[in-house]
Amino acid sequence: MAVPRLLLCLSLSVLCVSGKPTEKKDRVHHEAQLSDKVHDDARNFDYDHDAFLGADEAKTFDQLTPEESKERLGKIVSKIDEDKDGFVTVEELKDWIKFAQKRWIYEDVERQWKGHDLNEDGLISWEEYKNATYGYVL
């Protein structure tokens, strides 16, 4: 009686030790990218512009003269410097980038909502969603 139990325990132990997980899980939380552009500071700063200003604002800056760009950037830096000490800390810069990205997300959600709310009643029915998403005719 002791031998079968011993064999059973030994078999289970071998199975547990030799078995390996079939699915590899990534335990690192990856945050969303700040821009869809390639991050390569050796060639250009488009990624940084998008992250710092938000995609729409970065497009506006690309169309300004250097003088206008410098003036507007100075106004933005004043907004970033939350404690008004004349310096931008790493934390203030991180907070600004998060703010710019959230603003872009909220504006995109608002634009998407308006595009789906076909009868403009503030609600999106399943029919409106299907029509806006898949192009069904009412």
UniProtKB/TrEMBL annotation:
Subcellular location: Endoplasmic reticulum membrane; Golgi apparatus; Melanosome; Sarcoplasmic reticulum lumen
Chief location: endoplasmic reticulum
GO CC, any one term: endoplasmic reticulum membrane
Keywords annotated in UniProt: Calcium, Endoplasmic reticulum, Glycoprotein, Golgi apparatus, Membrane, Metal-binding, Repeat, Sarcoplasmic reticulum, Secreted, Signal
Listed GO MF terms: calcium ion binding
Top-level division of the source organism's lineage: Eukaryota
Similarity comment: Belongs to the CREC family.
Listed name of the protein: CALU protein
